[in-house]
Design brief:
Blueprint (H helix, E strand, L loop, with lengths): L35 E2 L1 H5 L2 H13 L3 E4 L1 H7 L3 E2 L1 E6 L3 H11 L6 E4 L4 E6 L2 E7 L1 E4 L8 E4 L2 H6 L9 E5 L5 E2 L4 H7 L1 E2 L5 H7 L2 H13 L2 E2 L1 H9 L9 H12 L4 H10 L3 H4 L1 H4 L6 E2 L2 E2 L3 H11 L7 H9 L4 H4 L1 E3 L3 E3 L3 H15 L6 H12 L2 H7 L4 H11 L3 H10 L6 H25 L10 H8 L5 H15 L7 H14 L19
Parallel strand pairs: 4-7, 12-13
Antiparallel strand pairs: 1-3, 2-4, 2-10, 5-6, 6-7, 8-9, 10-11, 14-15, 16-17
Helix pairs in contact: 2-4, 8-10, 8-11, 11-14, 14-15, 15-18, 17-18, 19-22, 20-22, 24-25
């Protein structure tokens, strides 16, 4: 066996934490059935011992490359392991898999010279060394067989251009572009001249922002300047690829850092102009409003320790999206943004279509949170009735917890006493909402009587009268006039029917299955 002990002397105490040091409020994402942290754990894998034996049998130079080395040196959990061979990636993968316990299936992509192997809960990608050349009008490269040096040179950042030789010279680090130095400096630098790197594949500019957000690294000044020069090149990248990187930024530990870099480079204005229009402060008669762009970034950042829900973070990103359109100055009251929550909710479907995001219940959730994000704030300012809280519970449904988290995150005052006062008010409101929800069974609203029961009772066809009765019953429950159960709703339905001249049919002796709000 070729296993040896390799220790890293790098000091990464301030870098993104491993699984055992994440804040307790956050559950780390599932990465594999065998989370690996650290270079020694990676090199101790049986699968790599067998890869070395296979490389010796086939006389194929073999290396660990890229993200696995970066994350192992940073003591971040590893979920994917990349092997680079000087030769055919699929052919080596087939020979290697034949030697592995269980003989796992090889998923080969011969047109790309790559193969995937799943083993021991980890995903391995085997690729042959290649070099790339690009056409100015496309980010799809012309690929040809290359050397190890060619392959490392084509990578996006020096921290991803590391290689560790498994065979023939086990234990040799190849660091042609000072990636280890840049890891120590917590800095993102391109292997080649950055303008060339970003012009060849403009998606790398979003990856720069994503790595900065995930790792907490800074961009080399020349790298950031090159992003600004090449920003327009992002237009040749498919929106699906852009959205994938954008979502990873939102889900990172430092989303504001990544979004801020995209803003500074001028890329955000191209891919998400509605967001960048929020930036800036207007002053009239000495009165200014807060910068709603940076406020929004802070709200998204505030959610990091509260939730990993992507759609809640999207709601935070969009909660004030319509403020530029609703901004007005009133000499008596200063700056106002009346109706921004409703207009913002109406903007959500268009923004989701632009980003190729799902137009299903997830979009409806974001839309609902944007529309209602001011409601809890209003409920904390005055003594409110149970009826007002029932109405909020009815409108927000099962997303009430996310709405409350969004409202807490929306507190961005620099006055700590004010922040604590607001948070106490929200906690008090949260307790009252839970009490009303439990007492009235409002958490998952379903009408006690549906349209089918109303039509059956009075012999009606679908139409306006059915809607009138349903709405009256709903309002009566929300106002506390009747309890939220079928029996009282049925009695009210009969009274309403009598008021509008409807004659009920004989009532069955036993009601159909109860449709309360359990």
């Amino acid at each position: 066996m070729y296993r040896v002990s390799i220790k890293s002397n790098l000091n990464f105490e301030d870098c993104s934490p491993g699984l055992d040091t994440l804040p307790p409020e956050i559950n780390p994402p599932e990465i594999s059935t065998v989370p690996l942290v650290g270079i020694e754990e990676i090199l101790g894998l049986e699968a790599l011992d067998i890869a070395i034996e296979t490389a010796e049998q086939t006389q194929t130079p073999c290396y660990l490359v890229g993200g696995v080395l970066r994350d192992a040196l940073l003591h971040r959990p590893v979920k994917d392991i990349d092997l680079l061979v000087l030769g055919s990636g699929p052919d080596f993968a087939e020979a290697w898999a034949a030697n592995l316990p269980g003989r796992p299936k090889v998923h080969a992509f011969k047109n790309f010279g790559t193969a995937m192997v799943h083993h021991s809960g980890l995903q391995f990608e085997v690729v042959g060394a290649r070099k790339e050349s690009y056409d100015r009008d496309s980010r799809k490269p012309l690929v040809s067989t290359g050397t190890l040096e060619d392959d490392l040179a084509r990578r996006d950042f020096s921290i991803n251009a590391l290689a560790f030789e498994l065979y023939p010279q086990y234990g040799r680090w190849i660091d042609n572009y000072n990636g280890i130095r840049d890891l120590e400096a917590r800095r993102l630098v391109t292997p080649l001249e950055p303008t060339l790197t970003f012009s060849d594949d403009p998606l790398r500019m979003l990856r720069a922002a994503r790595f900065a957000a995930q790792l907490g690294f800074d961009l080399d000044p020349e790298t950031l300047q090159a992003m600004g020069r090449e920003a327009e090149r992002i237009r040749i990248v498919s929106m699906e690829r852009i959205t994938d990187e954008f979502n990873k930024i939102l889900l990172s530990q430092r989303p504001a850092k990544g979004l801020g870099l995209l803003f500074d480079a001028g890329i955000l204005a191209i891919i998400f102009p509605e967001l960048t229009r929020m930036q800036g402060v207007k002053v009239i008669n000495g009165q200014g409003h807060k910068d709603n762009f940076y406020h929004t970034l802070q709200v998204v950042e505030n959610l990091v320790l509260r939730s990993e829900d992507l759609w809640l973070r999207w709601a935070a990103l969009l909660h004030d999206i319509a403020k530029p359109q609703t901004q007005k100055f009133d000499p008596e009251h200063g700056w106002t943004f009346h109706g921004h929550e409703e207009l913002g909710a109406r903007m959500v479907p268009r923004i989701f279509r632009h980003f190729k995001l799902p137009l299903d219940h997830t979009m409806q959730k974001v839309q609902n949170l944007v529309r209602l994000h001011l409601r809890p704030i209003a409920l904390t300012k005055n003594k409110v009735s149970d009826s007002a809280m029932r109405r909020l519970l009815f409108e927000v449904g099962e997303d009430i917890d996310d709405l409350m988290e969004l409202c807490r995150a929306d507190i961005t005052s620099k006055n700590e006493a004010k922040v604590q006062r607001y948070l106490r008010n929200f906690e008090d409101l949260d307790r009252r909402l839970k009490a009303v929800s439990e007492a009235d069974r409002m958490r998952l609203w379903q009408p006690p009587l549906g349209g089918a029961e109303i039509m059956a009772c009075f012999g009606l066809e679908p139409g306006r009268q059915v809607g009138v009765i349903k709405n009256r019953i709903r309002q009566a429950i929300l106002d506390g006039e009747i309890e939220n159960n079928q029996e009282q709703a049925y009695d009210l339905m009969l009274r309403i029917g009598q008021e509008i001249g409807l004659q009920p049919r004989p009532r069955p002796s036993v009601l159909s299955t109860e449709q309360g709000l359990d």
